[in-house]
Structure formats: C-alpha cells, structure tokens
Amino acid sequence: MTIARVLIASAAIVTTVTATDVRVLRVTTPADDGREGSLRWAIVSSNATPEPERIEIALGDSDRTITLKSALPPLEGPVTLVGAAWERTGDYVVIDASGYIASGGPERCPGATPGQFGANVRTMTLPGLQIVDTTDVEVTGVEIRGFCIGMLVNRAKNAFIHDNRRPCPRCESSLPARLARRGRCAMRILSARDDSQRLRPSSRTQKSR
User: Fold this and answer.
1) Which residues on neighbouring strands pair with residue 80, listed in sequence order?
2) Is residue 112 part of a domain?
3) Does 168 reside within a domain?
4) How far apart are alpha carbons 109 and 123 in whole angstroms?
5) Deepest of 49, 171, 178, 199, by most Cβ within 10 A of its Cβ?
6) DSSP readout, 73-117?
C-alpha cells in the first residue's frame, strides 16, 4: 500500500491512500445467495476489511435487477457502491425488495410509534441500503424498489448519495410496464453537497474499527 501521509488526531491514526489502493469488488450475478459475485458477498467482503473498496455492480444487459431474499448488511465506509451501467449509459441497476417484503399499502411500513405507518411518520423500517454509524460512503447509479425506506442514513458522516432513484408507488401501478421500466414514475435521489466535499478515491480514509 502506498501511504501518502499519516494524520494523528484524537488518539486515532488515519491513513490516506491513493486511487491505486482501492480494491474493486465486482457484482456479476443478480442472485442473492451470498456467493462470490453477489451483492451480499461484496458488502460482507468490504465490511470485513479496513481498507477502502469500490463495489461495482456490473450485471449483463438482460437482467439488471437484484431481488433480495433478506435485508442487506449496512455499508461500512470507506466504500463506493456504483452501478456500472449508469456510468456507461445512464441506466440504473435495481435492488428489489419483492423477495422478502410483501407488496401492499403503507400499513406494511410501521412507524416508530405504535399504530402509525406510512411515508410521513418517523420510521427506520425495512430500508433498501443502510449507512449507519460509519463514514465516507458513496452510492450512485442504483434504483431502490419496494422498500419502506430507499436508503437509511443515520449517524453517518460524509455520505454522498447521488444519481439514484426510487419508484413512486402511488403512480407506479397506473403506468404501462414499459414506461415504469424507463423511469417515468420515479423520484431521482440527488445530493446537494458541495463538490469540494465530494468523496474522491485519491483521498479516502481507512475504515475505523
């Protein structure tokens, strides 16, 4: 590993690494079986090391949908998760909840207060991706479908969430399938962060343990 510099602050050592040090974990199958090449494997493998990683979802053109069988582990930074198709063509890879979350109305998403449910109540129920108690996470090029919360960001620092989308359930059922697939019924998830704060692979910090 090439060490650019070492910073010592608050009794913690933070090592800055160059772009060549970033390990790439490629997701090449839509199966959610935990095997090498799956999204679940990539997240678990990334979380197991302190170094920065890039999780690259590089599925074929015929099937860019990953249907989960259970909740994914939270993302632990520093890590970048990117849909490779979005970088090339502007198309999104889909993380879909239908493998373990039943379809239905807002009552399937209970709030923190008993008896409350839906989109306008305080809740941390059934998120697609979780960025919790960590730092330096970037997510881009992903469509989150069928979850109560698209991306749960809680007590996280330097989370850069941009150029993703989440379908709008209210209008999804009223559109022809071909239009829904093209994103005619979706909210685009962007970030308003200043570009100077954008996470760059050349200045990522190691994961803290």
Assistant:
1) 54, 138
2) yes
3) yes
4) 8
5) 199
6) PPP-SSEEEEEHHHHHHSPPEEEE-TTTS---SGGGSB-SSTT-B
* pLDDT per position as a tens digit, 64-73: 999 999 999 9
Q: What total of structural domains would you count in the chain?
A: 1
Strands 12-17 and 149-154: unpaired
Say whether the peptide bond before residue 176 is cis (omega within 30 degrees of 0): no
Residue 202 lies in a domain: no
- Residue range 72-100: mean pLDDT, rounded: 94
Higher pLDDT, 92 or 2: 92
Percentage of residues in the chain having pLDDT higher than 90:
48
For residue 139, the enclosing domain spans 20-197
CA dihedral 132, 138, 139, 140 (to 10 degrees): 160
C-alpha to C-alpha distance for 143 and 165, rounded to whole angstroms: 5
CA distance 157 to 208: 13
What's the whole-model pTM score? Answer: 0.74
User: Among 132, 131, 157, 154, which residue's Cα sits nearest to residue 144?
Assistant: 131
